[in-house]
Amino acid sequence: MAFTVIERDTSRTITSGTKPTVELRYVVRGVGTDPAKEDDQEALEALEATAPPTFLGLLRQDVRLEPISITDVSESIWDGEVSYAAANVGGDPPQPEMGMSVFTFDTGGGMQRITQSRATVGVFPESGTTAPDFKGAIGVTADSVEGVDIVVPVYQFTETHVLPDTTVSDAYKHTLMIMTGTTNSAPFRGFSTGEVLFLGAAGSKRADGDWEITFRFAGSFNETGITVGSIIGINKNGWDYLWVRYEDKDDMGAQSIVKQPTAAYVERVYRVTSFASLGI
Question: Could you give all domains of the chain from N- to C-terminal order, each with its CATH number?
Answer without folding.
Answer: 2-85 (3.30.2000.30), 96-280 (no CATH)
